[in-house]
Amino acid sequence: MLKIGVMLGDDIGLEVVPETVKVMRAAARAVGLEIEWHELPLGLLGHELHGHTMPQYTVERLAQTDGFISGPIGHNAYPRNDPTWIMPPLRKQFDLFASVKPVRSYPNLPSLHKDVDIVFVREVTEGMQYSGTVVAGSGEFRPNDGISIGMRVVTRAGANRVAREAFEIARTRARKKVTAVHKEPVYRLVCGMFAEECRNVAKAYPDCTLDEVLVDGCALKLVVNPQQFDVIVTTNQFGDILTDEGAGLVGGLGLAPGLCVGARYAMAQATHGSAPDIAGRNIANPYAMIMSGQMLMGWLGRTRAQAKAARAAELMDLAMARTIAEGKWLTRDVGGSASTTEMGDAVAQAVADIASKTS
Ligand code: ATP
Question: What is the domain extent for residue 264?
Answer without folding.
Answer: 1-93+251-359
